[in-house]
Amino acid sequence: MNNLVWQPWLAELEKSYRVIRVELPGHGNSQYTKQWNLEELLSSMALRLPSCSAVLGWSLGGMVGLAYASHYPNRVSRLVMLASSAKFVRSEDWPCAQPEETVDFFSKGLIKNPTATFKRFIRLQTHGAEPSREINEFLKSVVKKNGEGSIEGMLAGLSILRQDDLRDLLCRLKCPMMMVLGEKDSLVPLEAGAESAQINPDIYLSVIDGAAHVPFLSHPREVLQGLGQFIKEGCVA
Fold it and tell me: Residue 215, exposed/middle/buried by CB under 10 A (0-12, 13-18, 19+)?
């Protein structure tokens, strides 16, 4: 997914904040020049972002935000992981996640039939919640306007989802952190919030009732309200 996904939200965010959108290499209009990993991405972000900022990341972007806040603790004042957790793939000690076969399915699909795979990906964004034709059509337009990105770049992102386990970073996190999870999210289960709070009891957990994987599109007011309070005060009601 590319940066246009934030467009419906952007006007409201910019009323209160200076917003800098980071697009992962090979996604949307961001060029893919070579194979990248999380370490290289963090270094690139440090060169482009302000010396101190609040960081919000959605899905894979939330994992990137967590890694950035851990690697550069003095540069991040607040961290918000939106429909995201520290580990995407299921394991014996982390059952609240996706089976590795899910990532394999999308990786193979991007190579064999990227168009069909993107359609499947878009459907998953609202899966589990009330069907939303409006959101699905918007997500299709996001891909159409800014492109699907490069296959290589997206495979690199999927590789992070498959391989990276950032739970240890939750323990060492120095800034206030909030997790915003959709009650009906089928990609990042609600249980991931409770498990994350077991690792770091200082995490603020916000659950958006009825939302799936794109709560900022389906329930923008609720997410904005919690986000504003967290950034201002470092806590949520």
Answer: buried
